[in-house]
Specification:
The structure holds 2 protein chains of 2 kinds. In chain A, helix 2 packs antiparallel against helix 4 and helix 4 packs antiparallel against helix 6. Chain A has 6 helices and 6 strands; from the N terminus they run E-H-H-E-E-E-E-E-H-H-H-H. By secondary structure, chain A is mainly alpha-helical. The model of chain A has no long low-confidence stretch (mean pLDDT 89). By secondary structure, chain B is of the alpha+beta class. In chain B, a hairpin with a 3-residue loop joins strand 4 and strand 5. In chain B, the strands form 2 sheets. A 3-stranded antiparallel β-sheet of chain B has the order 1-5-4, covered by helices on one side. The two termini of chain B are 32 Å apart. Chain B is flat, with a radius of gyration of 17 Å. Classes of the chains: A mainly alpha, B alpha+beta.
Chain lengths: 171, 96
Amino acid sequence: MNGGELFERIEKVECFTEDDAVAIIMQVAKGLKYLHDNGVVHRDIKPENLVFGNNSLTPIKLCDFGLSKVLDMGSTDTPCGTVGYLAPEIAKEMSHTFSVDMWALGCVLYSMLCGFPAFYDQSVPILTEKVKKGLYDFPSPWWDAVSDSGNAHTHGILVAYPLLRLQPRTW
Amino acid sequence: MKIMSKTNLKPRQVGPPWYFVGCATDLVLFFLSSQKENILREAAIHKRLNSPYVVQFIDFFETSKNFYLVMELYVFFFFVCLRAIVSYFLFLSCKG
């Protein structure tokens, strides 16, 4: 795509304004709603797989369906994804459903608002343990400028318990 | 256009369920299965999607060496490449 990946934009601007982040996340949520309505779970939502059609912030589109799957039974047990964006239920090797995409979207929103990932460690086993616990924080001073609404939305998506997690239709 | 080489395809393996590829946080966990099946599944899923929020699927084909997944806005580049290849073979045939 002409506009490049969201990952490149995050590297370039470090953090987005809340308005820009919401504009982008809304589009991705609509894309996820379309996928989920068609029974498809993406399972690899991350800034590298969100591409811009041009140099503005719209349109942004989902790509790379290499790990996606049609959920005929409503859930799946096959663990896959990128560790930093992995939902806790996948890291725990439990069955998972469409809500894993929303967790990953929450991780993307977190990265866009502060410029660094919600879950990170050089060691993969340690990172996986962090993801399993689903514990994250909003460290100062990076999150000081983010409004309570921005914090609340990030919190609403990054909920370890899948049934309580915000879904694309709620956006 | 996404190009996937057939030379790197790995057969279905028996072993631990987690397979680590890459490094640092960009590690991708794959459940071991035939990579060819995965590529074909990716193409099949992408083909059925049609939304302004999803990169549009154009075509999928394979040669003896590669699989090719053609997506929107890559079409122009694809035809430029195709034209260059055809021109090259025409040049060779004329030279021969």
